[in-house]
Amino acid sequence: MSSPTLLDSNHKPQGAPESKASKNASEMALVHNVVLRGLNCIYLQAPNVTDPKDIADFMLFCDAWSCVLHSHHLTEETVYFPLLEGQCQEKGVMSRNHAEHEAFLPGLLRFDAFVSRVKDSGEPYDAAELIKIIDTFGGALERHLHHEIEGLVGLEKDQSIDWDLVGKSMAQHSKKVADRVREVPFIITNSDMTYESGIHGVRFPPFPWFVHQIFRWVYVPQLQGAWRFSSCDDYGLPKELPFA
Ligand SMILES: [Fe+2]
């Protein structure tokens, strides 16, 4: 698998005010880019992790990445797409995305089983096997993450969609169910504040500065070793990958 391509997270037509549909597409692209950066961090660093302490931290990083992905797709399937499906004129939004989720799920579950065997059962870490597993589903996952954004942009002309309701429902539910130790620190340390000249820094990750600060002080340090594998520091500034 080659390095996944990041998504354009600026869907506002040039010179035009941002529509609610393009705001939704941009915010979804920002989340998807966190997943793509994380996958890239895993793929590039997996072959060079050899020390037992580093392997233990790397497995925590892999586990957090999977937690973010599962949680995002569960919220889409239970909140976001049912709401969209109920409002938009074109039917099939829900089933299309569900089918794409199902396409890479077996590979993702093999990834989870690998991580669990090494992390919880003490099995030896085999980088070649991990890479082989990612090769079975990484391409389908990347295509889905891109395809979903194209689908949202394509719904821009549909006047029957209440984008505020759809977007807020997704954000509220995501915040409510987010794992504070694994998921939120993963998102914080893989949200590049400088991406696209930093135009999204203020709104993503979607919480006020003091909440961000609480996470830096209380939650990020709990798995500090794992975040060494992240693409950014806890201020969202890109950093070198220590094992790439
Ligand atoms: Fe999504």
TrEMBL record:
InterPro entries: Dimeric_xanthone_biosynth, Hemerythrin-like. Pfam families: Hemerythrin (PF01814). This is Hemerythrin-like domain-containing protein. Residues 1-24 are annotated as: Disordered. Residues 28-153 form the Hemerythrin-like domain.
